[in-house]
Amino acid sequence: RSEPVTVIGLGLMGQALAAAFLAAGHPTTVWNRSSGKAAELVAAGAVLAPSPDAAVRAGSLVVVCLSDAAAVHDVLGPHRDALAGRTLVNLTSGTSEEARELTALTTSYLDGAIMAVPEVIGRPEAFLLFSGEREAFDRHRAALQRLGTATYFGEDPGLAALYDVALLGLMWGTLNAFLHGAALLGSAKVDASAFAPFATRWVGSVTEFITAYAGQIDRGAYPPEDATVETHLATMKYLVRESAAAGIDTDWPARIQALAERALAAGHEGTSYASLIEVFRGRA
Ligand code: NDP
Fold first, then answer.
1. Which of 9, 36, 123, 158 has the greatest number of beta carbons closer than 10 A?
2. pLDDT tens digit string along 18-66?
3. What positions does the domain 6-phosphogluconate dehydrogenase NADP-binding occupy (predicted)?
4. How many domains does the chain have?
5. Among 17, 37, 66, which is best to mutate for testing ligand 1, by the most ligand atoms less than 8 A from CB?
């Protein structure tokens, strides 16, 4: 028999989480401040608890997904007694500091981050990051895998939140670069849809640079096996000039250029692009 789970918070994400547990056959209890949001889940077999306390007591695994950490404290803070002996999994986005503070709610705490939109939850493409009590992750792994592909990063409860923002930063950086490129090509009447296949193909190549540079960063040496920072900088200037000539915003390429210039000013001539890590570390 599948373990009984509780889902607290039935916003867009919480509803998807509860639906995935239900679909996988877990007895699922739910609670939400506005109870109306439970209607579809109840129709699908979930039990709507009358209070957060009753909801917590119904599950051995308690998943909470609210707007922010303050809401988690508001809703669960008064129910520490009910949480005792259960595992709390916080899937609310927040900082690593907030995650560490939430461990005060219970002895068995896992923090998680969801790298997926609600419609993907329950499929392997959804990937979820966890950190916190290892034993709790091992014990509840089967249930957590119902939500997507679950990865555990370590005992520090803040790690999942740190991975989350680092990965989101990667997403925004990539998307900004795509949008800037689409604006640049758009000035020459090229549709974004024509650019997109080349953009995705190039992002694929860039993933290989990531792997190579990760090795250099970890070894603390940046040999110019592919190209030097100076070679990159010369080409960056074309991106700035083309942007200005096209009359599109130059802020993004100018920042890219400024980062490379700072690396060179700090003495990283003749090194690979990975030496920019020193700029991001605040040492250049
Ligand atoms: P929603 O805005 O749809 O839902 C927010 C939920 O929080 C609702 O259940 C709301 O209750 C509840 N809530 C907020 N404040 C309080 C409070 N003080 N007391 C009680 N309940 C409260 O957001 P999502 O479901 O989309 O997101 C939830 C979390 O999941 C966020 O941290 C988000 O970053 C994260 N997430 C969301 C993703 C997405 O694609 N949606 C992707 C990855 C992570 P009520 O219904 O009563 O207002």
1. 9
2. 999 999 999 999 999 999 999 999 999 999 999 999 999 999 999 999 9
3. 5-151
4. 2
5. 66
Mutate which of 12, 35, 48, 67 for ligand 1 pocket (most atoms within 8 A of beta carbon) = 67
Q: Rounded CA gap, 107 and 80, in Å?
A: 10
Shared domain check, 191 and 151: no
For 114-159, how does the pLDDT look when each residue is reduced to its tens digit (9 = 90+)?
Answer: 999 999 999 999 999 999 999 999 999 999 999 999 999 999 999 9
What is the distance in A from the centroid of ligand 1 to the CA of 126? 18
Determine the structural domain holding residue 205 and report its residue range: 187-280
Q: List CB contacts of 75: < 8 A, sequence separation 6 or more.
A: 8, 9, 33, 52, 64, 66
Q: Are residues 124 and 16 in the same domain?
A: yes
What ipTM was assigned to the predicted interfaces of this complex? 0.99
Which pTM value belongs to this model?
0.94
